[in-house]
Amino acid sequence: MTPMPPTAHEKILEVSDVSVTFGRVVAVDGVSLEIHRGEIVGLVGESGSGKSTLGRAILQIVRPARGSIRFGGTELVGIDPEALRRHRRDLQMIFQDPRGSLDPRMRVAAILAEPMVIHGTHDRAARRARVAEVLDIVGLRADVLDRFPHQLSGGQAQRVAIGRALVLDPVLLVADEPISSLDVSIQAQVINLLSDLRAELGIALLFIAHDLAVVRHIADRVAVMYLGGIVELADKRRLFEHPLHPYTRSLQSAVPVPDPKRERTRTRIILEGEIPTPDNPPPGCALSTRCPLRASLGGPDRCTAERPPLRQVHPGHAVACHFAEAADGPAPHR
Question: Between β-strands 311-314 and 229-235, what pairing exists: parallel, antiparallel or unpaired?
Fold first, then answer.
């Protein structure tokens, strides 16, 4: 595989106003997002925020109710199955549960070769060579090739899953909580592996997670989701040093600080009240019923009457909040 340096200006994925519904439930609500070649975008949010559904919609595992998803200039929404299958070579997913995503009846060698068989690429000798190459890329020894998934450790299984995604030389990986089921001692290894893949191969990555600390380590830009929508999107450094959305600030204030003195004195932002459900969201801003900023401003009616658009507050820093400027300042943990 030839290394491909990141090209910041080459847009490979453009998600525009995408919504995904399951009956009355709006799981993803009007999301727009771009990813450039070689870029790692972190997508953060609580369970139920819609981040995994968005990842699956990008791969057309679930079909959007509305909106556009353009990959490499091609519209994926409504695309016919055969054309979609061809694009799947360039667009791959790493699932949350590595063992659950691997066929328990197949040995590792067959699992890694399967995408090449399905897409009709490589002859038998070339497949064996490619499997060996990918095994080396993900840091596994050849003796795992004869094992079944149940004979692998969690870290080995996730490396096999990553290897399977790499076999066809994808342009973009969607990694859905790829370390959440792993032991803490293994998580850093997988994170470092994904970072190395970007550096060495130029692969772009949508990294879905609920852990802000992990996203801070790996991402170039970060998108924060709440109740189906992106509420803040910015360069990693800008977002962590000057978060503007009350939800982002609340998430950051909950992250432990490795300094006992600062940990005791830092500001905590607690969201009061019940978390709304996607089948019955509040009118206007989704955070309006729990927002500490709204409370501090005297509860302006605009918050409950008008849904805030995701707007540029600073260059490259977008926030879905009518009063984001009122929160402009250092991060709450600083």
Answer: unpaired
Joined tokens for residue 203: 């692969």
Angular region, 298: left φ>0, alpha ψ -120 to 50, beta rest: left
Two tokens, residue 332: 């709450």
Q: Name the 3-class secondary structure at 92.
A: strand
Stretch (H or E) spanning 329: none
């909040």: which residue's tokens?
321
Summarised one tens digit per residue, pLDDT across range 16-25 is 999 999 999 9
Q: In whole angstroms, give the CA distance from residue 210 to residue 51.
A: 9
Q: Is the pTM of this model over 0.85?
A: yes
Q: For residues 232 and 196, give the distance between their C-alpha atoms in angstroms, rounded to a whole number.
A: 27
Task: Convert 93-109 to b/e letters by CB count within 10 Å (16 or more is b).
Answer: bbbbbbbebbeeeebbb
Domain ranges within the chain, ordered by starting residue:
11-226, 242-327
**Residue 70, strand partner residues:** 14, 75
Is CATH 3.40.50.300 what the domain over 11-226 is classified as, yes or no?
A: yes
Written as six digits, the tokens of 52 are 């995994």
